[in-house]
Amino acid sequence: MQNQSLFVKMSLLTWEGQLKRATNLLNTLTDEQLSQEIAADRNTGAYVVGHLIAVHDAMLPLFGLGEKLHPELEETFITSPDKSGKPMPTLSQLREYWKEVHQHLGEKFAGLSEEQWFQRHSSVSEDDFSKEPHRNKLNVLLNRATHLGYHLGQLVLLKS
Amino acid sequence: MQNQSLFVKMSLLTWEGQLKRATNLLNTLTDEQLSQEIAADRNTGAYVVGHLIAVHDAMLPLFGLGEKLHPELEETFITSPDKSGKPMPTLSQLREYWKEVHQHLGEKFAGLSEEQWFQRHSSVSEDDFSKEPHRNKLNVLLNRATHLGYHLGQLVLLKS
Fold it and tell me: Model pTM greater than 0.90?
């Protein structure tokens, strides 16, 4: 295996490993558990799940892979904090979006060449990218993996 | 820049980014806050911090960079759960170990060549490594970054 495909493989394994753990956890948590706060006076599990879906969905336009599937989630789960009164999908909808967005991302990611992973994402200018070539798509994926790990460490607190 | 050196840089930035966030958080949390549980009936902040130090310290022998600085932490913070009654360093000692271990790791990491980052770590056999070349030191570092993110998402709950 050439080193370049090794980098992509290592990054995808890091992302997929966190995603698999989160999906497994989500499948064991009941709607009642997900409606609870992860700790006293903190975000609810439902908000954290919606936040993750919205952040992951945003990788599509960021990577030039098409439009978001659920642009309406941004206002409730990224721009606004929990309990903002903004329209909130049901837990059953959130579970469906989770599957839908991650399946779609998986298909799109599989179609990216190694070269494309090392190209800039859409929120860095060509000029900045020429000076900071590490600001590529693969780097965003690594950041999303640690971000997912961060919230996974919180969602696990909802387990009985 | 070649993709190989770029990928080493991206991985180190991912690790260092999480480490910086954790160190900053630790510096703002009081000993009293760190003595609390991250959520009802869960691990204390002190246990989580000791666990992270012990796990990070173990990268030294795993990467062939020498012995652990604090091998005594393994029994309390890796093998045993919180509140096991095993000898527990004070918070002031833990804060000191945190600095010491991460400064030492930083120096050792700076001395690793790109080639060395892509070599196997000591818990994978040569035979397995020839079939699974992604099981290298850099991959462990990425895993440690998501593991750190996981616990960072918990420690942040101790903030008032």
Answer: yes
